[in-house]
Amino acid sequence: MKNIFAKAGMLLTLSLIFLHHTSVMAQDKLTEIDKIFNWTSEKAPGCVCTVSQHGKVILNRAYGSADLERKVPLSVNSVFDAGSLAKQFVAAATLLLVEEGKLSLTEDIHQYIPELPDYGFKITLDHLLTHTSGIRDWTGMMPITNGDPDALKLVMRQRGLNFAPGDEWDYSNSGYVLLKEIIARKTGNSFAAFANARLFEKLGMKSTSYKDDLRDIIPDRALAYEKKNNNWKMMILMDNDRGGGGALMSTASDLVIWNDAITDARLGKFVTAKIQEPATLNNGRVLGYGRGLFLDSYRGVKEIWHSGSAAGYKGWLGRYPEHGLSIAILCNSGDGTNRMQFAHRIVDLLVDAADLKDQTKNIPGEITDSAALAALDLKSRAGLYFNDRTGEPVRIQYDGIRLRIANGPALAAIGKNRFKSVGAIVQYMSQDEFELNFVSKDLIELKSMEGLVTTLHRARMYAPSADELRAMQGRYASDEIGTAFTVTAGDGMLIIQLEHTPEKKLPFKPVDTNAFQGGMMIIRMLRNDKGAVTGFEYGNPVLRWVKFRKTE
Description:
Elements: H1 2-36, E1 47-53, E2 56-63, E3 65-67, E4 72-73, E5 80-81, H2 86-99, H3 125-129, H4 151-156, H5 173-187, H6 191-203, E6 209-211, E7 225-228, E8 231-234, E9 247-250, H7 252-263, H8 269-275, E10 294-298, E11 301-310, E12 313-320, E13 325-331, H9 339-350, H10 370-376, H11 378-381, E14 383-387, E15 393-398, E16 403-405, E17 410-413, E18 418-421, E19 435-440, E20 443-447, E21 453-458, H12 466-471, E22 474-478, E23 483-489, E24 494-498, E25 501-512, E26 515-518, E27 521-527, E28 533-540, E29 543-550
Antiparallel strand pairs: 1-2, 1-13, 3-4, 5-9, 6-9, 7-8, 10-11, 11-12, 12-13, 14-15, 14-21, 15-16, 16-17, 17-18, 18-19, 19-20, 20-21, 22-23, 22-29, 23-24, 24-25, 25-26, 26-27, 27-28, 28-29
Helix pairs in contact: 1-9, 2-5, 2-6, 2-8
């Protein structure tokens, strides 16, 4: 009998030692997470971070200030503008109505908003949900428009598309503006009312609401800031600065409730499956985007995430379902707040090291020998090129080791004139794993993963004469955007002003035949059969070739 009690006592002691050791290890990891946010202080804005594992919150902490003027610290109850984190809620609301038979993913959206222009193509709800509609993103138009229209009105008067629906993926806030309008029309109530009743209240997200008017009183709201000249400035989007479409206001802990609800299929099997189902292009390419969610991986671990940004508010929400891990980070500290990097450092701490892989991407057949690379003269291949199919600019850079595409992937040399994209992300060329073949120093063939070949030509030397520049002077207007530019000749360039803000003058320098660039904007002159300038096409990173006609 004594031996039995002795063995039982020994087992109990070992169990307590194990539990104590586990507790110490867990506490050590939480302390390491605190260090991720050690850049914050009580005199500066910061972040709130909530982490759950297997449905249990293991960390819920606030770092920094919610209100610098009144010296109010951030707390775990602080409410933030979640920016584009709202898209997964819009997607879920849409899918609930689809499941109930009130909407159809495959029906033409003109059935729901008949006053939309005829685009010449069928656009479906699923195109809107998956960013494959081709509808122009209002954020690329609002900065130059006149009259302060809301996003919906601006979207409704667009007659052209960036591309044929389903042909490409291109992030478009406009699609989600239309989805909220469709939900409101179909339910006879605002999207805010629908979301509050069918999503937030149902899931117990007590501190979350969708606000049509951000001037409403919102308890525990944290203010947002941006650092300018080493000083903090309040930076919050209101009214039409954010398109007039309202905002999702939430806490980090409520967003973890949302994440766990998707993991546990609390919205039902259909919504849960569809919101995470990869989108597919017309050519059969499967994308790393579902409906309001990026479908990705980090170090070999499945990652489902989205970010949000609204002026100084920066958010990130992600799940790692294979490890039962959920992370929400909401910040009020503006640009430079790399919340995805913060989240990945948390993953590194909480996921078993044996399950994490090296992120290095090895390209079969890549030339790595320094002498062989030197012989390729990579630097000479860098420069500005134009896509002959879309007209879009492609800037190839040399980083001292590899060629890479600006805002895109690195390029691995796999032959004398052949290069392979290193990795593929949905945000660049619709996740294409493409190859480049330098046919000559001025011509490139781009071959898509499906075998489609497109040519890129190097920007041609273009030096218009003073007379040619003067012939381009005049007023150029677009009723789609609702604005007009005044163009005058400068010294070897064009000077362009928005008619409603004449004090702002932008130099546009020639970069290709009939093409001029100012910052991230490009205009391409249009001519009639006699060579006279009749207008121009305007493009920027999210807007393809809106026509402006020359009126004088």
